[in-house]
Design goal:
The complex is a heterodimer of chains A (about 300) and B (about 325). Chain A is mostly helical and about 300 residues long. Chain A has 12 helices and no strands. Chain B is α/β, with parallel strands linked by helices and about 325 residues long. The chains are: A mainly alpha (about 300), B alpha/beta (about 325).
């Protein structure tokens, strides 16, 4: 839990600027992460318009190095891969698929897992039942799940997102449950009940919101892991398949050329590192924001 | 039972309440046959040391005892002509906060930290009073003003962490009273506060009671608070009421040896005593509850009968009930 909180004396009361914006502007590291992450997202989103070439066109010369190396071509800034496809175009398309894959899995798996964790902590009677299911899910490696799903519904983005989501559920459920059990023991839960609030309000407005920051931090870290596992699944041919571009898969495709054309592996790897790093820094900053005790102190 | 209070019929009557817990180490009779009544505009104080069952009594009234491990082992809590113990969960949700409200011991941790205090008051109002947002907010500001929070118009948007303990307890009181409850249960409302703030909060409660006519059940271990605030007192020991009287009688003519012990352990300026009295021994553990009077093992006046038979709570005077074989003793408190 890195403390990126910039201690500034802000007056209480009126908040003209959104606190999220203000905090991010105050914190240089978070600001940099937000800008880079935002640019990556925009670039990925606009890939069809930004990409200088068709990412699937293999008619160019293979192994062209990027512009800073000898033998480069000015129209291919980041060179071409082993099949003669433009790297920059493929990176843009690859980032898009990677982000979609990671976000979809985090949202789907995280949402379902968090819901189970909350219910498990709130209704103690179903707790052992849910946690045993989580234990069973936890004992399946994501790779195995991916294999099974790929066999049933065929390899592709759907299979990989489902596999990653299911693999995320038990972890998130456990993390949420342990955070929620602590919150359940807080006096304000009992006080909320004493006000006559129904279960639904207590679960969402009291329990969930007070667990949110810890679950959120976990999910941002998990986002990085999911992208890496997704890359591994793609590499095994269970997920995104060539010629479709996905950063993890692109990194593994370049491994044969690692010694004479390192950019084919290194560039997508760097992109992954950048995405994961930004996500982690942003997650940390957001955690501080979501915690009102740190908000104005 | 002749009411020591003139104010009409009881609002809430607890009769022979038994709340038990099933634990790994056996059966725990946290509340074992407790009876009392509260009337509009009056304050009933419940005193006793930690673990005597006073908090469980209040949670039982609110229907907040976790089940399991809690068990409703018997008795009834009559409110508005019906037994609260037999109400459904949904019915209890509509009574809690609206008709019977509660203030907790720890103001520092009893407010949801992720909400502005105003929103927490608004939430209850919208649920119980079906108020619109703006109207509920107006009412929340009005309540904050009522509990004497300075500049309530801005404070309504403060987060709990931006407030001091005394301020938060005021918010808790505003929250509890927002829906005009008939009964307010205050569980050690001043224990966690500074002495000066304690007096302010007690004054505030008394003042609000006078204005709103709320019946208050004040739970405390502090006889000083009782003397200042309560009209009637019930002294609890090991899950039972051992003595019940109006506050004057209790302080002038206490009969139960346990009450006497408690009174003797208060520091007093008007008496020159080198040491405070203590009550020897410990509260009996649930698995080793004495067969007879539960206080007998610690009682200086215990006789053979005390160890064998449980004394019933019986009237010895106008509204004065004692559970002791020795009572009444003339001038016991002298």
């Amino acid at each position: 839990m890195a403390d990126v909180a910039a201690p500034t004396a802000a007056p209480t009361g009126r908040r003209p600027l959104s606190p999220v914006l203000r905090r991010i502007l105050k914190d240089r590291l978070a600001l940099a992460a937000a800008v880079i992450f935002g640019l990556i997202c925009i670039a990925a989103l606009l890939a069809p318009w930004l990409a200088p070439f068709d990412p699937y066109n293999t008619t160019r010369r293979p192994f062209i190095p990027p512009v800073w190396s000898e033998g480069s071509l000015p129209q291919h800034w980041l060179g071409t891969d082993g099949q003669g496809r433009d790297m920059l175009s493929r990176l843009l398309y690859g980032a898009r698929l990677t982000l979609v894959m990671g976000l979809a899995s985090v949202v789907l798996g995280g949402g379902i897992g968090a819901l189970f964790g909350l219910l498990s902590a709130y209704y103690r009677r179903i707790d052992p039942f849910i946690m045993r299911i989580a234990d069973i899910l936890l004992s399946f490696p994501a790779i195995l799940l991916g294999l099974a799903l790929a066999a049933v519904i065929g390899p592709g983005l759907t299979a990989i997102v489902l596999a990653l989501s299911i693999a995320t559920i038990p972890d998130v459920a456990r993390i949420t449950r342990s955070a929620a059990v602590v919150v359940m023991g807080q006096d304000y839960m009992e006080a909320g009940r004493a006000v006559g609030l129904p279960d639904r309000t207590l679960i969402w407005r009291y329990l969930a919101l007070n667990c949110l920051s810890s679950v959120f931090v976990f999910l941002t870290l998990r986002f990085g892991q999911i992208i890496l596992i997704g890359a591994a699944l793609s590499f095994l041919g269970l997920g995104v398949r060539p010629p479709e571009a996905e950063l993890g898969m692109m990194a593994s495709l370049g491994r044969d050329a690692l010694f004479f054309a390192p950019h084919i592996s290194m560039l997508p790897s760097l992109a992954i590192v950048l995405i994961v790093l930004c996500a982690n820094v942003l997650g940390d900053a957001l955690r501080d924001l979501l915690d009102p005790r740190l908000r104005n102190t | 039972m002749s009411p020591a209070t003139p104010d009409g019929a009881p609002l809430l009557a607890v009769r022979d309440l038994k709340t038990h817990f099933r634990t790994d180490r056996g059966f725990y009779r946290a509340v074992d046959g407790v009876s009392f009544e509260v009337r509009a505009g009056r304050t009933l104080g419940i005193v006793g040391e930690s673990g005597c069952g006073k908090s469980v009594t209040s949670l039982s009234i609110m229907g907040l005892v976790p089940e399991p491990p809690g068990i409703r082992a018997g008795g009834e809590i009559v409110f508005e002509g019906a037994d609260l113990l037999r109400r459904s969960r949904a019915e209890m949700e509509l009574i809690r906060g609206a008709k019977i409200a509660m203030i907790f011991q720890e103001p520092m941790t009893s407010l949801n930290p992720v909400y502005r205090v105003g929103e927490q008051i608004v939430e209850g109002l919208r649920r119980h009073r079906r108020m619109g947002r703006t109207q509920a907010r107006e009412r929340a500001i009005e309540m904050l003003r009522l509990v004497k929070i300075p500049s309530p118009e801005t404070r309504v948007d403060s987060y709990p962490h931006e407030m001091s303990g005394g301020m938060r307890q005021r918010v808790m009181i505003a929250l509890a009273l927002a829906c005009d409850p008939q009964v307010l249960i205050a569980d050690e409302p001043t224990t966690a506060l500074d002495v000066t703030i304690q007096a302010q909060i007690l004054d505030l409660l008394r003042d609000l009671q006078k204005r709103l006519g709320t019946a208050i059940i004040l739970i405390t271990h502090d006889l000083g608070v009782i003397a200042e605030t309560a009209d009637e007192v019930a002294v609890m020991y090991a899950g039972q009421i051992v003595e019940r009287a109006d506050v004057r009688t209790l302080f002038s003519d206490a009969q139960h040896p346990y009450t006497l012990g408690l009174l003797a352990s208060i520091p007093r300026l008007d008496e020159d005593r080198a040491r405070l009295e203590t009550i020897e021994g410990m509260v009996p553990t649930p698995d080793a509850m004495p067969a007879g009077c539960r206080f007998a093992p610690r009682c200086a006046m215990a006789a053979a009968r005390c160890l064998a038979e449980t004394p019933p709570l019986s009237a010895i005077g106008e509204g004065h009930l004692v559970a002791c074989w020795r009572a009444p003793v003339e001038g016991a408190a002298a």
